[in-house]
Design brief:
This protein has about 100 residues and is an alpha+beta fold. It is built from 3 helices and 7 strands; from the N terminus they run βββββααβαβ. Strand 1 and strand 2 form a beta hairpin.
Length: about 100
């Protein structure tokens, strides 16, 4: 398996994984973690924020709402605090949420 990451002139990253000589998988998102967390994915910042998230977009920029919708969040334990957090995450714009509950 071979991984390729290309830095474009506008500062974006594009990545692919070569599984075999016949099969290539494009990366949906590249995360760069340093002093800041930077996300690179196709069409970042080109999305339109839903009206419910316009105040967030005004405060933190248009790309934030799109970034939150692309991230995956996990909540471990859905008791008092976890259940409250699980209900608030979609209101912030997260779409991919995994919940872990004790059975």
């Amino acid at each position: 398996m071979v991984e390729t990451v290309i830095l474009t002139p506008d500062g974006n990253l594009i990545g692919r994984i070569w599984v075999s000589s016949q099969e290539v998988i494009s990366l949906r998102m590249i995360r760069v973690v340093g002093q800041k967390i930077r996300l690179h994915y196709p069409n970042r910042g080109l999305g339109v924020s839903p009206p419910a998230f316009q105040r967030q977009a005004l405060a933190f920029g248009e790309a934030l709402n799109q970034d939150l919708s692309m991230l995956r969040v996990g909540v471990v334990g859905c008791g008092g605090t976890g259940s409250a957090i699980a209900m608030l995450l979609p209101k912030m714009g997260f779409r991919n949420i995994a919940l872990s509950v004790k059975t």
